[in-house]
Amino acid sequence: MLCNKNMYTCAVVLAFLLASVSIDRIDGKPDGAPLEACATMTPNHGVGVYPQFINSSPFKTEIPSGEYAIMDNTLNLELRSVNDVTTYKGFLVMAFDKNDATNTPIGTFKLPSDGKVIDCSGIVGSAATHKSRNEKKLTNVQWTPPKNFMGTAIFRTTYVHNATTFWVKTESIAVTYVMELPTSSTQAPVATTPSSASQLSKTWISLITFSLMAYLMR
Fold first, then answer.
1. Would you say 92 and 33 are in contact if contact means Cβ atoms under 8 Å apart?
2. Is 97 left (phi over 0), alpha (psi -120 to 50) or beta?
3. Would the pTM count as exceeding 0.90?
4. 129-139 burial string, b = 16+ CB within 10 Å, else e?
5. What letter would DSSP give residue 193?
6. Measured distance CA(196)–CA(185) in Å, rounded
């Protein structure tokens, strides 16, 4: 065998193979998060690699329409860089019912501008992820709630900057689905109170009396 004749060659080949396996494990899937990542939303980037603190995330999931939405309406999400400088290579986003302790994803995603959809928890299209490792500053995603959903949805997104730097389950604002959007309160006109009306009448009477007296004294 070759290894018996040339131990140095075998050692080099073995080292190369080990390095290749290690690199593949660290870099993860270049075409998006695998289904195995659905449960924890954590990338499998090797032993000793841990997520960053959520509060320090340079990325955020924005809901431009705000914290209320009409029942059955599709939401537009923006997965963006906070400073418009730092980029991310990968992402995984899911929606959850804020009041459901089971943490089961809800709703379905449409095909993102720079990604694809996957079926987490056996629910078709319940998550969206990247499809390439190109650097991103903004990804537009659309999400449709379950039929007749009248609860509060929250979006959790994992952002991957590189193999050793990533943020897990960063949260968006909560969005409550309602039958109609609440209107902003307006100030009602101030009603004329009896006392103010009485005071106004007295003022006019005084003016008329003064005018009449001045006329008679001419």
1. yes
2. beta
3. no
4. bbbebeebeeb
5. P
6. 26
- Collapsing DSSP to helix, strand or coil, 213 comes out as helix
Tokens 């900057």 -> residue: 161
Write phi, then psi, for 23 (nearest 5 degrees). Answer: -65, -40
Q: How far apart are CA 87 and CA 139, in angstroms?
A: 11
11 vs 6: CA distance, rounded Å:
9
pLDDT 10s digits, 157-177: 999 999 889 999 999 999 999
Distance from C-alpha of 121 to C-alpha of 104, rounded to nearest angstrom: 7
Q: Are 74 and 143 in contact (CB under 8 A)?
A: yes
Question: Which pLDDT tens digit goes with each residue over 101-134?
Answer: 999 999 999 999 789 999 999 999 999 999 999 9
User: Partners of 92 in the beta sheet?
Assistant: 129, 158
Strand, coil or helix: 17: helix
| pLDDT surpasses 80 at 10 | no
Counting beta carbons within 10 angstroms of the beta carbon of residue 38, is it exposed (0 to 12), middle (13 to 18) or buried (19 or more)? buried
Distance CA 93, CA 174 (A): 14
Do 143 and 34 touch, CB atoms closer than 8 A?
A: no
**169-200 per-position pLDDT tens digit:** 999 999 999 999 888 633 344 444 444 445 54
pLDDT score of 13 more than 60: no
